[in-house]
Every structure is written in C-alpha cells, then in structure tokens.
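User: Teach me something about this protein's shape.
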Amino acid sequence: MPARSWVPPGPYDLHRTLCVLQRGPGDPAFAVRGGEVWRACRTPEGPGTLRLEARPAAGAVEAQAWGPGADWLLERLPELLGASDEPDRFTARHRLVHEARRRHPGVRLARTGLVLESLIPSVLEQKVTSDEAYRAWRLLLQRHGEPAPGPWERMRVMPDARAWALIPSWEWHRAGVDAKRSSAILRAVRVARRMEEAAGMDLAAATRRLTALPGIGPWTAAETLQRTLGAPDAVTVGDLHLPKIIGYALTGRRGTTDEQMLELLAPYEGQRHRAARLILLSGVVPPRRAPRFPVGDIARL
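Assistant: First, the predicted structure itself:
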C-alpha cells in the first residue's frame, strides 16, 4: 500500500482545507471518520482512494492510497493539501477578515488538479437547493459509480466520461436532475479531455475554456476552479446567498447585489476568493427573515 507524508510550512487545518471538496454529509466520494479524511477520485490513471490524517505531534499529514490512481494521488499530495497556496500574500482589509484569519491560520486553498470531479457536482448545484444537489450527486454515484479501491466499502468513485454519457434520461429524472443540467453535464463529458486540460491553465484561460461550453457560466466555472486550481481570486458571482452574506458581514446591510459584493471585495483583488472564504469562516450571516427555499423534486413529476 503506497504511503507518503507532507510537512506543512506552518499551522495547518486538514479538515477545513479539504471540507470544500465534500458534497454534502452523505457524499459517497468524501468522508470524515474520526481524525481521518477519506477521498475517492477518478484520476487520469484510474480510480484511487486517499486516506489522510494530520499528526500534530509529528507536524505532518500522513497519507495512504489504494487503487490504480494511488501513485497519481500521492505524487500530487502536497498540491492537494495547499503546498502551492500562498496565504502570506493576503492582507486583511477589514477587522472581521483579520479576526477570521487569526482564528483559522491553518486553512489553505486545496488544489485537486481534476476538473470533471468538481465541474459535474457544480452543475448539479445550479439553481437548486444544496440538499437537492447533494441528493442527486449521491444517487448518481451510488447507481452509476464504482466501488472505491481500499478498505472502506461504502465509498464510490464517480463514473468515467463514457459511463456518464450512458446514463439514461429516466435515471437523471430519478435523481431529480432536470434536462438543462443533465445536458450541460453530457456536453462536458463528451469533451472531457479538453475540460481536464483546464487544470494546467491559469485562472483566466481555464475560465474561458469552461465557459465556452453551453450551460457552464461564470458561477459554475468559479465553483469548479476554486477546487481544481486552488485559485485565490476565483470569486463566485451569481450566487443566491454569497453577496448577502458578504455584504452583511462587512457592512451590516442587507440585500447586497453581486456588483456591490465585488465593490466590497475590490481591495482584495487577486485574493477575492480567499477573502470570501474567510468571511464565511467568520460565521457572521444575516438573520433569517423568510422561510427556507422550498425543496423541489422533479422525480415525482
């Protein structure tokens, strides 16, 4: 069983660094068990499972891997854990951001180097509640993914491009995925190689590559490239909640628009995603004044 360790250059928070890769509490491809983080991936070399555990006494993160993709995952372990991230280049411009950074010094931006594994669930999250998107991801992986290599039987590796393309329309419907989102995913997997090439591009070029595909807009591209590239400036525009949270946290005002959010984040140009991440970690959110957005279920229609 291949293994590797990585020594962070300073304080390190394994869970908060990698939690952005989890798609809901029931994600078949990501799990937390005790102090361990488990991740099942489809790498260019095939399926692989990664087990990660922080060992503060040794000042290291220990990793073990299984499957045909094990060597690929271990070779890129430091990148995944944020070795190429440069948090010291960030300067807090607001007291709340400064305090969030002080309380979470070990959070780094993960870089997976994989596009489709972030792009597909991001498409599933378009214009629906998180619970709906998480359910769709879970059902699609359980029914059309494959068992992940290694000792944890419940984990699943997402389908390869061909398997995604062969999912029948009624299975998308059963998972609650409408035709617009399933069509966008099918277009992406048909050009899977070109999509994956974005992992080697800078943020601007990668964004152009993804958004050239119908059904992939700026919101989906940013959500994907935050994870694929660990891009510190890939700010999410077009989100229902993020502008309101950032506006309330920084100004105390409600109803912030995308344009106003970008004005507030302008002092963080080049680091706007990191600033937004820290604001979310602060836990300051506007009080709820309306009922939750109703959960739809097209599978019952």
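Now, about its shape. Residues 116-228 form a domain with the Endonuclease III; domain 1 fold (CATH 1.10.340.30). The first strand starts at residue 3 and ends at 6. If you'd like, I can walk through any region in more detail.
User: That's plenty for now, thanks!
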